[in-house]
Structure formats: C-alpha cells, structure tokens
Write a structure and sequence with these properties.
With 237 residues, this protein is α/β, with parallel strands linked by helices. It has a nine-stranded mixed β-sheet with strand order 4-3-5-2-1-6-10-11-9, with helices on both faces. The mean pLDDT is 94.
C-alpha cells in the first residue's frame, strides 16, 4: 500500500454531469464506489467537495448586489448540500460516513473537531469536511489542504477530468505537455492552476504532496493510492 491516510478533493461541478448544475446521482454512485475501493484496501479517506454546481461566492457577488462575504457563505452552504449527497451515496455503497462542518449546524452534521475526525478515520469511517474553512475569501482548495494537514494525511488528491497537470488546457490544445511531477515553486511561479496559490503555499510549508488525476477513470484512485502506480497522474511536491 502506497498511502495510509489521504484526503480527496473534487469540485462541485464534477457532481453536475452533463447538466452543468445540480447533482447527478449516477456520478455520486460512481464516486462512492471509487471511495469504497480505497476503504476496502485499508486506506483512511477524508473528502472535501466544492460547491460550484450550486453557487460560487465570486460569481454571486460579481455585480455588487451581494457582498463577497455573503456570497462566500452561500458557497459554503452549497458544499454542505453536496456533502449530504455524498454521505448518502457512500452509505448506500455500504460505507460508514461522518460529515463535519466548519459552520455549526448540528441537525445536519457534526462540527469540525480535529481529534474526533482523526478518531473516525482510525475506525475506518469516511469523513466529509464541509463548509470550507468557515471563513470567506478562502476556497475549498485551501480548505482541503488545511484539513489534510490537520488530520495528518500523507497526500492530497485533486481529482479532475484530466490525467494530470499540463502546461495548458489539454481539452483545448492538442500540443499541451503533461508534467509527471513539478515543484511547488514552479506551480506558483508559472501560475499552473493545480490548486489556488494559497493552498499550494500551505502544502509547500507542510511538505504535503498533491496528486492530480482523472477521477472518472474507474479504478484510478486505488491504482494510484493503493498500488503506487503514478503513470496516470501528476504529482506536485
């Protein structure tokens, strides 16, 4: 086994499917099965999901009617909606799951308590971290890196629609070049949008590797995290 404890981050848009908004339950089912394969292999898994399939704080606040702080709180609530959906899908797949939120809402989830989260992981439960960091102006990328550091994850996985990091968008440019690995400083200096700059800087400070891979290739997460096969991903370290 390559890793014992990991944090998987994927965007809210990933849940939307072809509709581009809302939640596609078949995608939820697929992701839950991928997570289950990790848990069955003995890997402890934390999850952070974005909220872009519902609302983005920056977009909500772009015309000035809604303040940026309020827009960001709206985005945090969107991640809670996605977290509830992901929890249901994982439980449907036979997993034990706990969701913790950075904003207290006891009727829905536990408040984020680091020691409790770690204890859940030790017991083989999947832990979903929702509501970002609980603060405006911070993305769910930063929240994912923060939670990964706090729970002592060995790696953070940025699950995307492509098989790694490229010098430009491979969906648009056929001559895009893939990086097998690159340094934190290169990612920051060249503005390669693996994750936002704050999250990359935090990962660098804590020597936390970032693996970027295709979340829609069946068995890919287990191949990378369980078997150490790094061919179908890129790593920032």
């Amino acid at each position: 086994m390559a890793y014992k404890r990991v944090l998987v981050k994927f965007s809210g848009e990933a849940l939307a499917g072809e509709a581009g908004h809302g939640i596609d339950t078949q995608i939820l089912k697929f992701i839950a099965q991928e997570i289950k394969s990790l848990v069955d292999a003995g890997i402890e898994v934390g999850i952070v999901i974005g909220g872009g399939n519902i609302i983005r704080g920056v977009t909500a606040a772009q015309d000035g009617i809604i303040k940026r702080t309020s827009g960001d709180y709206m985005g945090m609530l969107a991640t809670v909606i996605n977290g509830v959906a992901m929890q249901e899908a994982c439980e449907h797949a036979g997993l034990q799951v706990r969701m913790q939120t950075a904003i207290k809402m006891e009727q829905i989830a536990e408040p984020y308590i680091n020691r409790k989260a770690c204890r859940h992981l030790e017991k083989g439960r999947v832990v979903i971290f929702a509501a970002g960091t609980g603060n405006p102006f911070f993305t769910t990328d930063t929240a994912a890196t923060l939670r990964a550091v706090e729970i002592g994850a060995e790696v953070i996985v940025k699950a995307t629609k492509v098989d790694g990091v490229y010098d430009k968008d491979p969906m648009k440019y056929s001559d895009a070049v893939k990086y097998d690995s690159l340094g934190y400083d290169q990612a920051l200096q060249d503005h390669i949008k693996v994750m936002d700059d704050t999250s990359i800087a935090l990962a660098k400070d804590n020597k936390l590797p970032i693996v970027v891979c295709d979340m829609f290739k069946e068995g890919n997460l287990l191949d990378i995290l369980g078997k150490g096969n790094m061919e179908n991903c890129s790593i920032v370290k």
